[in-house]
Amino acid sequence: RRQNSSSAPVEASSTTTLSPALPVTVFSGIQPTGSLHLGNYFGAVKLWTEIQNDPTKQLITSVVDMHAITLAWDPKALRANIRRMFIELLACGVDPSKTVLFQQSQVPQHAQLQWIFACLTTMARLDNLPQYKEKSATQSDIPCGLLLYPVLQAADILLYRARLVPVGEDQVHHLQLAQHTARVFNHHHGKLFPSPQRLPSDLPRVKSLREPAKKMSKSEPDTKSRIEVADSPEQIMLKCKRAVTDFPAEITFDPETRPGISNLLLLYKTIRAMEMDAVLEHFRAKDKVALKEELGEAVVELLRPVRENVRHLEGNLEFVERVMEEGAEKARALAADTMRLVENLVGFRSD
Ligand code: ATP
């Protein structure tokens, strides 16, 4: 295996020199809360498909269904979304022969390690996290799971002793909690966990097409706010056409004062692999209608193979099931390794 899972405790410091023979473990997760969108793609998934081809890294990626039940859920929809997420990740190029791709709930050690971490984390620290404040503000009966969400995320990452975490900007605070948790555990129980560092993508924050002050999100009820990877060309063109911008007619780039149009320009720039100056020059004599249309065409082109792969995989569900089973098996073996060390360090067992 290419996994850094020796049973000897690893040094906690992020500056630890690694043996060149041991690839660096990279962990990332995605919630099965809906269809994969351009934000997920450019914030995380595209980077995963690059990392998995880097022989110095071992990518572990989880469909984090336990995170998806921190807000009200419907079991039937969840079941469908889990499978859908596997299909879409495979369609985007995540390769199960290179990446450990698995469903979080099928690896019980995530919940076990989360409990230990929950006992090492203060309520005050969790209460202050921006994403919790935002999500809890919309409801009165807040489940404990929502507060514990980042603790579970810390367990996800540290269970594989990952050093790198490719996530979008929305996850920065959660990653800081994972670093803090590693420090607290190492301080009280012995050096086991490295301090995980964020691996940023080219486009770490794609904005909503309807409310550019917000990020593009799977669970937002207005589906016109996002482009999903399996959207039809007609849907993509329409969503781009309807994207909210502002009043001025000219095309300028300023994410602070003009978030809507800047978001479209950034997407165009990333898809066409151009510098922003070249993009602005390209649209200098054109209007916003042209920008939306050309962006739509670029997105259709980008997602055409993904859409075809989705269709192919939908007709090949046995393969998808097999990927899910084999991924869980690999992840359980890796997780068991770390958990045995953790249980010894915290006093649950003495091998
Ligand atoms: P939900 O709406 O259910 O909270 P989400 O769309 O925010 O879901 P997650 O499953 O929480 O997505 O995140 C999966 C990955 O995609 C994470 O690495 C996250 O940082 C990244 N991501 C999510 N939304 C965006 C975005 N708008 N721009 C860039 N990256 C994003």
UniProtKB/TrEMBL annotation:
One of its GO terms (biological process) is mitochondrial tryptophanyl-tRNA aminoacylation. GO terms for molecular function: ATP binding; tryptophan-tRNA ligase activity. The keyword tRNA-binding does not apply. Its main location: mitochondrion. Its EC number is 6.1.1.2. One of its GO terms (cellular component) is mitochondrial matrix. It is an enzyme of class 6 (ligase). InterPro entries: aa-tRNA-synth_I_CS, aa-tRNA-synth_Ic, Rossmann-like_a/b/a_fold, Trp-tRNA-ligase, Trp-tRNA_synthetase. It is found in: Mitochondrion. It comes from the Eukaryota. Keywords: Aminoacyl-tRNA synthetase, ATP-binding, Ligase, Nucleotide-binding, Protein biosynthesis. Belongs to the class-I aminoacyl-tRNA synthetase family. NCBIfam families: trpS. This is tryptophan--tRNA ligase. It comes from Hypsibius exemplaris.
